[in-house]
Amino acid sequence: MNLNPSSGSANQAFTIECSDLILREFGPDDLDDIHELTWQPEIYEWLPGWNVPKEKRANWLLNYELKENRQFLKAVSDGGDVGQLCLRLGMIDKATGRFVGWCCTRIKPELPPPNREIMYAVSRDYRGRGYSTQAAKGLTAFLFSSTNVDVLNAIALVHNVPSNKVIRKCGFAYHQNIEIDNQTYHAYKLTKTDWEKSVVGR
Question: Which superfamily, per CATH, for 2-149?
């Protein structure tokens, strides 16, 4: 994993380089790609409520998400205390330059504290390539190495077999089942200590 040395600067987007992907903070020009992806049945099946009208998506992106990304990155540069802030990164395929998914971190209010989670989604055209695993590992490494985050969570619907596999591949340990909006999820945790042990053991 490589971090853009200019990460968080006003003139250059923050990036995390993975094997086949670059994770890059959302930009205004990503609106069409994000909107298209959220309307793929393969994505909104697992992320209900994300397939909103384009006008609403534009409002979220331009008036909230981009601003909060900059606040998150400023908090990182100011010492790493990211508090309740969210970070939203697009998956950019190195071979094509296409926006093919996203990997984000946020506070999940349905989980008991510490309740920061990572979550991801990838286009149906780019599944089966290990992109979700690369992205989740890249974001996890950034959070544990550059912020004050000590525990990360991940959840997946119990019948979402691919997502549960990705979470386990990234070192998360099953914690419990939880109910959200009448649906059952497997909930996982990964501590910074366990992540550090796994990095040393490679």
Answer: Gcn5-related N-acetyltransferase (GNAT) (3.40.630.30)
133: how many CB neighbours lie within 10 A of its CB? 18
pTM (predicted TM-score): 0.92
Q: How many CA atoms lie within 13 A of 53 on its CB side?
A: 3
Between CA 16 and CA 23 the distance in angstroms is 5
188, 165 in Cβ contact below 8 A? no
CA nearest to 69, candidates 33, 23, 38: 23
pLDDT in tens, 65-79: 999 999 999 999 999
